[in-house]
Amino acid sequence: MAFDQMEWHAETFPDSMDRDCAGTHIGMYLAWLIMNDMIAPELYREYEADFERVKRREMTGRDLLMERLNEGLLEDVMTEEAQEFTADYYDSKYIDDYENVLGNSADSEYAVYLHDDSWENYDQVEPMITERFEQWRDGEWD
User: Fold this and answer.
1) In sequence order, which ranges of the chain are alpha helices (DSSP H)?
2) CA within 20 to 30 Å of 101's CA: 81, 90, 95, 122, which one?
């Protein structure tokens, strides 16, 4: 099962928008999974060098998503706990949280896609996902 795919977003982009922008929000979530050791062990072994590059911040989650994971956030990428959390959180709250944390400076339906794929932005998004995960794990999900 796919939680998200770049193509789902990019197919509606105007011609002037870079297709890679469709993967930034997905890649940030993927980076959080990697940084928190929530990648399925068999997949981690297969792409260990790349996952370690993300951990060292030599590669972004979006780059890994595009280069190794066929541009999709799939359930078989994650541990079981991560699958359960993602099923509860990703579609219901993640995009709104992502927009709220990074700010929505552009008045456009595509504003969520206009954020830089940077570790500085990841550093803003990471605490928000972690907080949601802790709420979820502690049964304090609202």
Assistant:
1) 6-10, 24-35, 41-46, 48-55, 61-68, 80-89, 95-102, 119-137
2) 81
DSSP classification of residue 23 = G
Taking the C-alpha atoms of residue 58 and residue 20, their distance in angstroms, rounded to an integer, is: 18
Contact 113, 40 (CB under 8 A): no
0.90 surpassed by pTM: yes
Reported as type and span, the H/E element at residue 2 is: strand 2-5
CB 57 within 8 A of CB 51: no
- Whole-number Å distance between alpha carbons of 124 and 26: 15
